[in-house]
Amino acid sequence: MQPRNMSMSGVVDLAAVKAAQEAKAKAEQARAEAARQGGGAGGASPADLVIDVDEAGFERDVLQRSAEVPVVIDFWAEWCQPCKQLSPVLERLAVEYNGRFVLAKIDVDANQMLMQQFGIQGIPAVFAVVAGQALPLFQGAAGEAQIRQTLDQLVEVAEQRFGLTGLTVDPDAAPGAVAEAAPAMPAGPYDALLEAAVHALDAGDFGGAVQAYKNVLSDDPGNSEAKLGLAQAELLHRVQGMDPQQVRKDAADKPADAEAQIAAADLDLVGGHVEDAFGRLIETVQRTVGDDRDAVRLRLLELFEVVGGDDPRVAAARRALARALF
Fold this sequence. Notes:
Layout: H1 17-36, E1 50-52, H2 58-64, E2 71-76, H3 81-96, E3 102-107, H4 112-117, E4 125-130, E5 133-139, H5 144-162, H6 191-202, H7 206-219, H8 224-239, H9 244-253, H10 258-270, H11 274-287, H12 290-307, H13 312-325
Helix pairs in contact: 6-7, 6-8, 7-8, 8-10, 8-12, 9-10, 10-11, 10-12, 11-12, 11-13
């Protein structure tokens, strides 16, 4: 089977990026506090860069860890000859990349539920989990040059879009130190409301999530997590009842119709087509005037909030919007 290349161009988190960043920050604070008290590890052992993972430890070893470092998953089996060629390469590169990612090895024979959850049809299969999001990397045998290119792209995306710079590796650290649970940080005043909003998003109750985020912002207008969450929840709420085929048809038939283009841009973004969403609205700004133009511009600014101001695609679109307006 030919390797299936990874494509990261459409990765946009609509529910958990900010939460993952908050979790990362809290973990770093907890480790720093533990270190000041004499109980924290100075870094990860090289032995911690390649780990065996099973279903029982998946949440801790993969999902939680992905809030601070990309986790590459190698799905393998003892009887799989291509796996025996690929796995040693991945293990060597995990050590060479020195903490920029962690390699999690999952035996599919012993963990068939995980294999089904990831929709794996054949092995070897390699995925990554970044900030709680699963991303397919490639399936089947792959050359080292291609693997390096894929890993370089993964590391770049993790750092630029999710703020994950990886683990500090200490050759003298005891193996297993990074797997220990960090001490719990005191709960923030709005943690319960924010958690309720996330649960509402997960349940598809986007209206409830919108209200929960608004409740936080009514008391704390500067709460960055609630601002981002509200923008995401409102977007998902808007597209929930849309007929995608009809929305696309209306947008194609009426290129200067502000309402039609705004609806299509929302669908673009939810589908991960960030540049398409931004480009559609910028072109509509150029075609419209008055209140219609203002409505398109404001929706574009809202979508900037969803993607995040530090995303290079947002910076480029802001420049293009300025040219369109002036």
